[in-house]
């Protein structure tokens, strides 16, 4: 028997962001829900230094959000994914960001991007 995959995830991270292209989205924040799934290497894990610290997902999201108004959720997802895939031990990352208030008739609308190290 052998280990074939190791995934770390953060699901349902809630943040408030100034985001959107429409006039009614300017000058206010709105909720976002962020999910991230990481494929890590198959090396031995003996401590936090050998894996991914979950807290980094929230820290990185807030760093981008704190820079000011973001036009598109796609921009935030791609910026986050490019930063997260560069972290140690990360081979691939999938970042999904949902805007629960985007459509009146839907629970959520959003985007999912995948970045992988070559």
Automatic annotation (TrEMBL):
GO CC terms, sorted: cytoplasm
Pfam families the UniProt entry points to: FolB (PF02152)
SUPFAM superfamilies, alphabetized: Tetrahydrobiopterin biosynthesis enzymes-like
Enzyme Commission number: 4.1.2.25
Keyword tags: Folate biosynthesis, Lyase
GO BP annotation list: folic acid biosynthetic process; tetrahydrofolate biosynthetic process
Pathway(s) served: Cofactor biosynthesis; tetrahydrofolate biosynthesis; 2-amino-4-hydroxy-6-hydroxymethyl-7,8-dihydropteridine diphosphate from 7,8-dihydroneopterin triphosphate: step 3/4
Top-level EC class as recorded in UniProt: lyase
PANTHER family assigned to the protein according to its UniProt record, in alphabetical order: DIHYDRONEOPTERIN ALDOLASE 1-RELATED
Family, similarity comment: Belongs to the DHNA family.
Protein name: 7,8-dihydroneopterin aldolase
């Amino acid at each position: 028997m052998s280990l074939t995959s190791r995934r770390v995830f953060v699901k349902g991270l809630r943040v408030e962001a100034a985001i959107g292209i429409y006039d009614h989205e300017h000058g206010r924040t709105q909720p976002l829900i962020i999910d991230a799934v990481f494929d890590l290497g198959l090396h031995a894990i003996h401590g936090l230094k050998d894996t991914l610290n979950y807290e980094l997902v929230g820290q990185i999201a807030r760093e981008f959000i704190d820079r000011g108004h973001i036009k598109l959720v796609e921009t935030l997802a791609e910026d986050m994914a490019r930063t997260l895939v560069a972290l140690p031990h990360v081979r691939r990352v999938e970042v999904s960001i949902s805007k629960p208030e985007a459509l009146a008739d839907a629970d959520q609308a959003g985007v999912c991007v995948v970045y992988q190290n070559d």
